[in-house]
Amino acid sequence: MATRLKIKTTEGNIIIRLYDETPKHRDNFLKLAKEGYFNGTLFHRVIKDFMIQGGDPDSKNAPKGKMLGTGGPDYTIPAEFVYPQYFHKRGALSAARTGDEVNPEKESSGSQFYIVWGKTFKPAELKQMEHQMAMQQEQQVFNQLTREHHEEIMNLRRNRDRVGLQELQDKLIEQTKITCKQQGKPSFTEEQIEVYTNVGGTPFLDNQYTVFGEVEEGLDIVERIQNCNTDRNDRPTEDVIIETVALL
After folding, report:
1. Are 32 and 83 in a shared domain?
2. What is the pTM of this model?
3. How far apart are CA 235 and CA 193, in angstroms?
4. Which residues span the domain enclosing 70?
5. Coiled coil located at which positions (predicted)?
6. What's the rounded Cα separation, in Å, for the pair 146 and 229?
């Protein structure tokens, strides 16, 4: 039984379906919706040809110019990547989160979410993105290995053992290459290429943020919202209010 909800906004209604394959995100979103947590909040961050973001409780009745985007419950949700089955196509519902430097596990915000609009890409642009994804994969694996060897690295630094540090770095680089080879080179599926070249989306967010649902009806409303005028902090100059989020 599909979990469907209606997001009633001042611009019109958006019907979303939550994925059963991301149960932690599904159950959390449902719980907040039933509590009325989203009622009266804003789509506080809107970027044309990119996405519309909401779910910040601090945005309720927020005066003009108030900085928004850091509010939420006092918990995060473990990442639930179901990739490449679910990706950042136009209409994807995804969880916002803090950056990798403070959040290496890519855990999601307790309440903030965004709906993808994005744009279409040429095949050559997607190829270039695959190359960037491979570099990103290497960097992430290397960073993880570095964290695991933190004590050893600190001891070598304290002892000013440059040779030892160089040897360890070479070893970690070699391990990174082996791990990346085992994981396989990041590449887009045929379905992703089809969607990203013809429909649109934000492929550079794939495997970085949890996609936990999609818009079933009301993409025209998402389009209207992403086209609205915004201030320098990407907040719509005329508030776009989420009046209610209710289970269908």
Report:
1. yes
2. 0.89
3. 31
4. 3-119+200-247
5. none
6. 44
Dump pLDDT digits (tens) for 148-180. 999 999 999 999 999 999 999 999 999 999 999
Burial 203-226 (b: 16+ CB within 10 A, else e): bebbbbbbbbbbbeebbebbeebb
Tens-place pLDDT, residues 30-48: 999 999 999 999 999 999 9
**What's the residue count for the chain?**
248
158 and 229 co-located in one domain: no
- Residues 211 and 112 grouped into a single domain: yes
Question: Which residue, 122, 95, 117, 125, is CA-closest to 107?
Answer: 95
Instruction: State the CATH number of the domain containing residue 39.
Output: 2.40.100.10
The pair of three-digit structure tokens given for residue 87, joined into one six-digit string? 């990706």
Residue 26 lies in a domain: yes
Q: Is residue 75 part of a domain?
A: yes
